[in-house]
């Protein structure tokens, strides 16, 4: 009986990177393995790579992405478990093209019928950087035409493809004349966990919020505080991490509706993820905001995320925070000058932060802002800072490490 593996890997001189190899066993098992890519915001791809390695995958991290291989189960697992990635995509083809004819012919040469059924809906998005084929709309149109041509021939020369079935989002990405064709298994971006019913102005994406927490020295046994919590995204992501709740547990994915995909894969992973939730943990998480209406929204979002019992939300001005707790972690995404407030207003907040948090010697503070002069207004030089992108906004993550106070050893 045949063991069939469709494995995506680069083949020099081939039109794409999709190939098939046969092995034989006593009983028939069909397992498809792909070259996969987890995309990420600039600056947090290393976190995605770390998450993949923790899950047991060997990966290669590049700017904004991490490559790895896996089957249907692995696609389901990474979609459900990864906290900082944007999307999980199948790398279906890769080749060099400097003309539209080359783009058309090499796209057409790929076995699209092995992935796309006759009624597949397959919109084509695109991007092109430093390439001869710089017109993205033209590239999208040509890729679409090439796929239609291939499928028409494969499906008894049909002159019309209805596109009324499941969604198979395709992207043509061209970098320095190298074309990469991918199929998005996630559908909507992974930052859409499904718990945020409402949000305030300039909201932080859930996967970026998770990244901010993961870049700290916080552990579930430490106090955690967000003084500018807005709709509660950072405290909720901290609670999900502390309770080991997989972020994609309560949402759906494009690949679940694909005809070639193992229908049991996502259900299997969800069952495994539910068993891994920690019920023996008590978290000390506080989210505060000056806006009472945002606090109410945060409470509702926490309820939907299933973590409301582990987070206290409180309407409070930043300067009013006082605590006797030690070894805590503070994470803040305050309004910055190009985001909701004027530059002067934002800098007044930074000065308040410096004055309010100065007594918290054992606390580590992590503050995200696009104001590169933040330290000047805060009144202290950061232990470390890291460049991140909050959407299209270039920011720095200023880190002020606390002096850890150790508990006395009992005699």
Automatic annotation (TrEMBL):
<dbReference type="Pfam" id="PF22020">
    <property type="entry name" value="RlmL_1st"/>
</dbReference>
<protein>
    <recommendedName>
        <fullName>THUMP domain-containing protein</fullName>
    </recommendedName>
</protein>
<keyword id="KW-0808">Transferase</keyword>
<dbReference type="GO" id="GO:0070043">
    <property type="term" value="F:rRNA (guanine-N7-)-methyltransferase activity"/>
</dbReference>
<dbReference type="InterPro" id="IPR002052">
    <property type="entry name" value="DNA_methylase_N6_adenine_CS"/>
</dbReference>
<dbReference type="Pfam" id="PF01170">
    <property type="entry name" value="UPF0020"/>
</dbReference>
<dbReference type="Pfam" id="PF02926">
    <property type="entry name" value="THUMP"/>
</dbReference>
<keyword id="KW-0489">Methyltransferase</keyword>
<dbReference type="InterPro" id="IPR029063">
    <property type="entry name" value="SAM-dependent_MTases_sf"/>
</dbReference>
<dbReference type="InterPro" id="IPR004114">
    <property type="entry name" value="THUMP_dom"/>
</dbReference>
<dbReference type="InterPro" id="IPR000241">
    <property type="entry name" value="RlmKL-like_Mtase"/>
</dbReference>
<dbReference type="GO" id="GO:0008990">
    <property type="term" value="F:rRNA (guanine-N2-)-methyltransferase activity"/>
</dbReference>
<keyword id="KW-0694">RNA-binding</keyword>
<dbReference type="InterPro" id="IPR054170">
    <property type="entry name" value="RlmL_1st"/>
</dbReference>
<dbReference type="GO" id="GO:0003723">
    <property type="term" value="F:RNA binding"/>
</dbReference>
<feature type="domain" description="THUMP">
    <location>
        <begin position="74"/>
        <end position="185"/>
    </location>
</feature>
């Amino acid at each position: 009986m045949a063991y069939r593996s469709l494995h995506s890997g680069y083949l020099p001189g081939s039109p794409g990177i999709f190939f098939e190899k046969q092995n034989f066993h006593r009983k028939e098992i069909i397992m498809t393995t792909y070259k996969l890519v987890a995309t990420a915001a600039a600056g947090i791809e290393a976190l995605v790579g770390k998450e993949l390695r923790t899950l047991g995958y060997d990966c290669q991290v590049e700017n904004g992405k991490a490559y790895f291989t896996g089957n249907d189960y692995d696609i389901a697992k990474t979609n459900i478990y990864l906290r900082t990635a944007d999307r999980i995509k199948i790398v279906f083809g890769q080749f060099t093209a400097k003309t539209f004819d080359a783009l058309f012919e090499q796209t057409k040469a790929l076995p699209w019928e092995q992935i796309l059924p006759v009624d597949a809906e397959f919109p084509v998005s695109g991007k092109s950087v430093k390439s001869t084929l710089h017109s993205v709309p033209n590239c999208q149109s040509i890729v679409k035409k090439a796929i239609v041509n291939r499928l028409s021939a494969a499906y008894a020369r049909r002159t019309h493809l209805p596109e009324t079935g499941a969604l198979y989002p395709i992207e043509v990405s061209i970098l320095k004349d190298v074309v990469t064709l991918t199929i998005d298994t996630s559908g909507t971006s992974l930052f859409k966990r499904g718990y945020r019913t409402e949000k305030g102005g300039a909201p932080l994406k859930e996967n970026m919020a998770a990244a901010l927490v993961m870049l700290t020295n916080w552990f579930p046994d430490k106090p955690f505080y967000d003084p500018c919590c807005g709709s509660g995204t950072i405290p909720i992501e901290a609670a999900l991490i502390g309770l080991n709740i997989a972020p994609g547990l309560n949402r759906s994915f494009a690949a679940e509706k694909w005809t070639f995909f193992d229908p049991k894969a996502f259900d299997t992973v969800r069952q495994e993820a539910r068993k891994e939730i920690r019920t023996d943990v008590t978290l000390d998480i506080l989210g505060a905001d000056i806006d009472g209406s945002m606090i109410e929204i945060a409470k509702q979002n926490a309820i939907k995320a299933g973590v409301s019992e582990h987070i206290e939300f409180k309407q409070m001005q930043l300067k009013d925070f006082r605590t006797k707790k030690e070894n805590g972690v503070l994470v803040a995404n305050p309004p910055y000058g190009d985001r909701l407030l004027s530059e002067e207003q934002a800098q007044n907040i930074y000065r308040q932060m410096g004055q309010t948090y100065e007594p918290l010697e054992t606390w580590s503070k992590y503050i995200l802002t696009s104001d590169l002069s933040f330290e000047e207004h805060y009144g202290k030089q950061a232990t470390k800072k890291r460049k991140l992108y909050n959407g299209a906004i270039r920011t720095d993550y200023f880190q002020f490490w606390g002096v850890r106070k150790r508990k006395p050893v009992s005699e």
